[in-house]
Amino acid sequence: MYKDKDPRAELFAAGAKPPATGLIAKEQLALFYASDPQATGPGWKSWYHRGNNFVLAYSQTEPGAVLSREGQPDEYVLYLPDAGPGAVVEWGGETVEIPGQSIAFIPAGDSRVTLGGGGQVTRLFTIRSRDLAGAASNADAYDQHRHHIPAFAPWPDPVGGWKVRHYALDVPDAPGRFGRIFRCTTFMVNVFRPQVGPRDTTKLSPHHHDDFEQCSLTLRGDFVHHLRWPWTVDMADWREDLTITVGSPSSLIIPPPVIHTTRSVGAGENDLVDIFCPPRIDFSQKDGWVLNADDYPMPNG
């Protein structure tokens, strides 16, 4: 069904198998624009939304605001979607300037992020950041163990050792490459080119994942998420189809093996980012898809 339409087509075909029975989890939705933040500080306010393996921290900031972490247990993501001054990151005795419209990976330990121009900031942490997981708006959503999602395990250390690494988002498209994909030891982030106007409804891409969640973060515009729970041999797994209409900013975490596709519906610019924790093996195996693959190796085997 994806021939000549979607560069993921052969991935879907290769991974096709009957859906597993058992726990079929509920989707997790956070409408940041329609809810109060979970935390505030001088010049910033933050919303926390958790998945099985991760916590998304979305923040609205003023110029000069500081977002810091003490004793951070593992590498985390700093995503700066807006053009402008960006941020200054202090870690390990070093100070690194991160331009706007960049993604950065910050190692474990103490770190301090100072926002030069303010604006939207997204950080991504693994579930090992238990303080943030406990502060999430859906903190209790994973009290029932997701036995069909493997426990989080980090990928190999980066080439050349630990340091703050950052990459520009302004990367030209390439034939056969899907999105703009970056990974570190803990996350994979796929930054889509903003869609102007509604998506062509004759070119959607419904698909599912067997054993990992997908987090779709919307930062501008309006979207409709379509979700369909597959029929397994156990009728207790069955659910009604869902159509979820969202504005921005918002976050939807889609559980496996739910069939899903998303379409932009806003008249202006619609900005979507897909997030996976840990990185995806299938995307990583596609030559040229991960733009910083030379810095972050795949697991052996």
UniProtKB/TrEMBL annotation:
Superkingdom in the source lineage: Bacteria
InterPro entries: RmlC-like_jellyroll
Name of the protein this chain belongs to: 5-deoxy-glucuronate isomerase
Originating species: Paracoccus pacificus
Organismal lineage: Bacteria, Pseudomonadati, Pseudomonadota, Alphaproteobacteria, Rhodobacterales
